[in-house]
Task: inverse folding
């Protein structure tokens, strides 16, 4: 892994997104790296704000509206673009979603942890709430804090590094285009390829779930409404 390509896909939720961006830009990283924000059809107002902030904070901004007319979410397009770019540079792909805030040393430590494990496909930082308690999607790791877990459960892309070993072994062109999210599929494919996924519960990152798509919080507050919307409108396919 010669370098790291850090990305944040985003749709609206501008204030939490800027917290994510500023935390990444304030990270201490010794690896050569780039940082790209993929704007997935945010409002005109928020797109303008992202364009202003990209100049101020120095990140690369890609407005997906400039390259596709496919409606949001466009996670598959982003993954395919990023896999190609990462393979060309022998880079790891580090995804930090727009509802996550990292610490200064998180990304460096995650990359080091992946490099120390040649069989690593995905190195994921555990998510916690603002009180530091492990939260969705890693509640299964409660009681296993401050460890590095060789996990058979899927790794969310909240804050995860996809290593060159995985990117070379599994072609994202084969992913199902009828789905919306791919962390479950890619996690399982990594294991099928004989690689391993590691959850770093010693590297907590603050996660405020579904800031960009608040309707998904119905899963916790009104599950009947969530699943009705999910299945009748074909949304949130994993």
Result:
């Amino acid at each position: 892994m010669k370098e790291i390509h850090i990305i944040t896909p985003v749709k609206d939720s501008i204030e939490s997104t800027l917290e994510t961006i500023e935390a990444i830009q304030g990270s201490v990283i010794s690896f050569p790296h780039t940082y790209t924000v993929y704007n997935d059809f945010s409002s005109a107002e928020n797109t303008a704000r992202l364009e202003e902030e990209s100049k101020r904070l120095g990140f690369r901004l890609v407005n997906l509206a400039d390259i596709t007319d496919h409606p949001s979410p466009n996670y598959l397009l982003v993954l395919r673009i990023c896999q190609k770019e990462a393979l060309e540079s022998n880079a790891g792909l580090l995804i930090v979603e727009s509802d996550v805030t990292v610490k200064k040393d998180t990304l460096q430590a995650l990359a080091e942890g992946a490099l120390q494990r040649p069989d690593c496909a995905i190195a994921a930082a555990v998510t916690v709430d603002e009180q530091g308690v492990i939260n969705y999607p890693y509640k299964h790791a409660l009681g296993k804090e401050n460890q590095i877990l060789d996990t058979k459960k899927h790794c969310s892309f909240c804050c995860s590094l996809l290593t060159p070993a995985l990117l070379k072994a599994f072609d994202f062109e084969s992913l199902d285009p009828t789905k919306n999210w791919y962390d479950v599929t890619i996690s399982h494919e990594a294991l099928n390829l004989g690689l391993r996924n590691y959850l770093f519960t010693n590297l907590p990152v603050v996660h405020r779930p579904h800031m960009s798509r608040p309707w998904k919080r119905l899963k916790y507050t009104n599950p009947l409404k969530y699943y009705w919307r999910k299945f009748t409108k074909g949304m949130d396919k994993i």
Notes: Helices lie at 14-25, 44-57, 75-89, 106-115, 164-169, 183-192, 218-221, 223-232. DSSP finds eight helices and nine strands in the chain. Strands lie at 3-10, 33-39, 60-63, 91-96, 100-101, 120-128, 148-151, 159-162, 196-207.
